[in-house]
Write a structure and sequence with these properties.
about 10% strand; alpha/beta; 8 strands; two-stranded parallel sheet; Rossmann fold; about 325 residues
């Protein structure tokens, strides 16, 4: 596979120069997207583990006074994966994007209050149709109203790559989304059994035993909808599956143990679709499914996908630009 971006193995440190008017900032009634790094950016799975069951927003997200800059006119909405709350899944990318000048927003969706504690605090379990209809659609409208933007960009991980496709295809999202950037996408479903998939993900946050069966018995649905051949994915992939007016990027890892096979994440060959297997460029990038949202190489691809006109060479052993 050809590389969408040139590779830079090592490079000199760049000097960061910013000129920010303190007086103007003090007088402003709203905040613009950051012009210089404001948040520390942690990398690796450990970055988010401490924030499971944390209802807070990740650093850099949900500043409702943020106004997009001319350089990044679309606010970015982060959409987490199955069982992964926003504070955990976006512990890396929320501050990184904010430091790079984006207005960043995130939400927890798909919680099921009818389940016993602590399952009732685990996000992403509910039907993705319900999540798209009752949670994502109004959230997009709220972000657009607050920021004055015409469109948003999506950055999704795992379930967060296919739940918003329902919004785009069936709920009027076509005219409200500019770019869709997707980490470990599940476009064509996983061959993993829905119960086994859910059990593996719940076990990672310390919920063992029959937790997955409780969820499946409640009929909340997302894990089953993510499996290959589900009615949900059949509906998404019939007819026009990917809107020609939206730019899609799908970022995959060969070490994905949840989306089986990882090639299920590929989008179609089309002018508005870019498929990236990270190890085609960086063989030593060893992150798996959950690690995609906190990996520095994957993060570089996200930045490039959001701002392709200013794409930077991929550094297989370095961290993304931070501001």
């Amino acid at each position: 596979m050809s590389s969408p971006h040139p590779i830079r193995r090592r490079g000199p440190f760049r000097l960061l120069a910013t000129a920010v008017s303190a007086c103007a900032a003090a007088l402003s009634m709203t905040s613009t997207a950051a012009a210089e790094p404001s948040y520390p950016v942690p990398y690796g799975l450990g970055a988010g583990l401490a924030h499971y069951f944390d209802p807070a927003s990740p650093p850099g997200a949900n500043d409702w006074n943020c106004r997009p800059s001319s350089a990044h006119p679309e606010p970015v909405i982060l959409l987490h994966g199955l069982t992964a709350p926003q504070a955990a899944d976006w512990a890396t990318l929320a501050p990184l994007l904010a430091d790079n000048g984006y207005c960043v927003f995130a939400l927890n969706y798909g919680m099921q209050p009818q389940l016993p504690a602590p399952l009732n605090t685990v996000p992403g379990l509910g039907s993705m149709i319900d999540s798209a209809t009752t949670e994502l659609a109004p959230f997009v409208d709220r972000v657009l109203a607050a920021t004055g933007a015409e469109k948003v960009d999506f950055v999704g991980h795992s379930e967060g790559t296919v739940m918003p496709r329902w919004y785009i295809k069936f709920l009027g999202g076509t005219d409200k989304v500019a770019k869709s950037v997707n980490l470990t996408p599940v476009n064509n479903g996983t061959q993993a059994n829905g119960g086994a998939l859910l059990g593996a993900l719940l076990a990672r946050v310390g919920l063992w035993g029959g937790a997955q069966q409780l969820v499946l018995n409640a009929g909340v649905g997302a894990a089953v909808q993510l499996t290959a051949g589900s009615d949900y994915l059949d509906a998404l992939n019939s007819g026009v599956a990917y809107e020609p007016g939206i730019r899609y990027t799908f970022i995959m890892t060969r070490y994905d143990e949840i989306v089986l096979p990882y090639t299920s994440g590929f989008g179609p060959i089309a002018p508005n679709v870019t498929n990236i297997v990270v190890q085609d460029q960086c063989p030593l990038a060893l992150f798996e499914h959950n690690g995609a949202s906190s990996d520095p190489v994957a993060a570089q691809h996200v930045l490039n996908a959001l701002d392709p006109e200013h794409a930077m060479p991929i550094d297989c052993f370095g961290h993304p630009r931070n501001g």
